[in-house]
Automatic annotation (TrEMBL):
This is Ribosomal large subunit pseudouridine synthase A. Belongs to the pseudouridine synthase RluA family. One of its GO terms (molecular function) is pseudouridylate synthase activity. The lineage of its organism: Bacteria, Pseudomonadati, Pseudomonadota, Gammaproteobacteria, Enterobacterales. GO terms for biological process: enzyme-directed rRNA pseudouridine synthesis. Its EC number is 4.2.1.70, 5.4.99.12. Pfam families: PseudoU_synth_2. The keyword Cell inner membrane does not apply. Residues 25-180 form the Pseudouridine synthase RsuA/RluA-like domain. InterPro entries: PsdUridine_synth_cat_dom_sf, PsdUridine_synth_RluA-like_CS, PsdUridine_synth_RsuA/RluA, RluA_PseudoU_synthase. SUPFAM superfamilies: Pseudouridine synthase. Keywords: Isomerase, Lyase. The keyword Magnesium does not apply. Gene3D superfamilies: Pseudouridine synthase.
Length: 232
């Protein structure tokens, strides 16, 4: 098997983590774009959601991750027992996640389901790929919010579609590769074609935001409905 070499160095992130909810068991945050969820092996990639939070909440652990460029809602467990309960909710798919994104071009359908298995390929790292034979099941639902044109600094008029995405599974890069599969990559996505259409080359970030997270409190079983408005 090919050895995976990660050469990515994250630029400094000066944005703060916003706290949406906290108690003695868990913390719900709004992660800024441009911050790693977990510190990398390279010492230059030390800064991360976990690195920052463990200074405030010793012993906290990540339940799930958001990609470096993705902003939005994350839940973090304050101890291992809580982490196990929350991870079970994610694995049993009882957690509802809602994202907002800007896609390149205008989607023709107003809503739909993307059912396309996703596979890892060490030779293509960090890219994932769609593979009917090697991939694990991956399913996402989408709904168009608006279609519009954005005028860039150079005067170019770029067609964009604002959509709501609801992943039913949680594969790595799922929403990014599923949108590319639709033929409309997420604006600003460097891995899956979101910087290729004319006028998109200087997009400052990945236009993907985790806007809602719905789950049950691991002890009280009370519903927690976390929201964060899309910044774009």
């Amino acid at each position: 098997m090919s050895k995976i070499i990660d050469t990515f160095i994250a630029p400094p992130c000066y944005d703060e983590i916003e706290y949406l909810y906290q108690d003695e068991h868990l913390v719900v945050i709004n992660k800024p774009s441009g911050l790693l969820s977990l510190s990398g092996k390279n010492p230059q990639n030390l800064d991360s959601v976990h690195y920052r939070l463990v200074q405030v909440f010793p012993g906290c652990t990540l339940v799930h991750r958001l990609d470096f460029g993705t902003s939005g809602v994350m839940v973090v467990a304050r101890n291992k027992a809580i982490n196990a309960i929350l991870c079970r909710q994610f694995s049993q798919r009882t957690v509802t996640k809602v994202y907002h994104a800007l896609l390149c071009g205008h989607l023709s359908d107003d809503c739909g389901v993307i059912d396309a298995p996703i596979a890892k390929d060490p030779a293509l790292f960090p890219l994932m790929s769609i593979s009917a034979t090697q991939g694990k099941p991956a399913r996402s639902r989408y709904r168009v919010i608006e279609r519009f044109y954005q005028t860039r600094e150079d005067g170019a008029s770029v067609p964009l579609t604002r959509i709501q995405l609801t992943p039913e599974t949680g594969r790595t890069h799922q929403l990014r590769i599923h949108c590319q599969y639709l033929g409309h990559p997420i604006l600003g996505c460097d891995l899956y074609g979101g910087l290729l259409p004319t006028g998109t080359e200087k997009t400052p970030r990945l236009m993907l935001h985790a806007s809602e997270l719905h789950f049950l409190h691991p002890l009280s079983k009370a519903p927690i409905n976390a929201h964060s408005a899309s910044p774009f």
